């Protein structure tokens, strides 16, 4: 994107890599997981630089190519035997701490709003309260998993609330993008996610955050 401060791209790129590293650690430092995620980032980084995602009059939108495979993969993890074995080995404590990345994500989104690349409703000054999940994550991690002071029920409720916060911003982001289904923010639509490196937000960061919640919720309910 033109006329965008470089630091926003750098901070978001580092935040994405941090998210991947957290998930890599939660997956018991699996090299296969790390290579798959880094390969995925590289693939869609190259595609986004080419301008492929900036064509927005298609249905389904081209951006679905960066999003749909990740969520299909998540679904397969929960319905296949090998997938269930994989998610049952993930470290719930690390997956909980992973949510701290939602703080820099929200700060970057606010910067993108100031630059006219996303609407206000996608920030904490609008309809996006996802930063609450990031701020509270270290407390849930510490008191819930390090000190064992929080009951599983409290941790479960926290995960459901934060999952709701995530779904809220995802829905608003989709309906604010310049797609044929756009409903909001026609004067300042959500265009940032169509460009590098911000395409990694719907293509990698959001799916990993979503998966982290589902894994912990599943484990708490089963236990």
3D architecture notes:
- By secondary structure, the chain is mainly α.
- It has one domain.
- The protein has nine helices and no strands.
- α1 runs antiparallel to α6 and α3 runs parallel beside α9.
- The chain is globular, with a radius of gyration of 17 Å.
Entry keywords:
223 residues; mainly alpha; 9 helices; 0% strand
Write the layout of secondary structure elements.
Elements: H1 6-26, H2 31-49, H3 64-79, H4 81-88, H5 92-97, H6 102-114, H7 131-146, H8 152-176, H9 200-222
Structure at a glance:
By secondary structure, the protein is mainly α.
Number of domains: 1
Shape: globular
Number of helices: 9
Summed over residues and divided by their number, the pLDDT gives a mean of 96
Distance between the termini: 47 Å
Fraction of residues in H or I helices: 55-70%
What is the tally of beta strands? 0
Radius of gyration: 17 Å
Strand fraction equals under 5%
Q: Which structural class do the helices and strands define?
A: mainly alpha
Strand count, sense and barrel status of the largest sheet are: none
Low-confidence stretches: none
N-to-C series of helices and strands: HHHHHHHHH
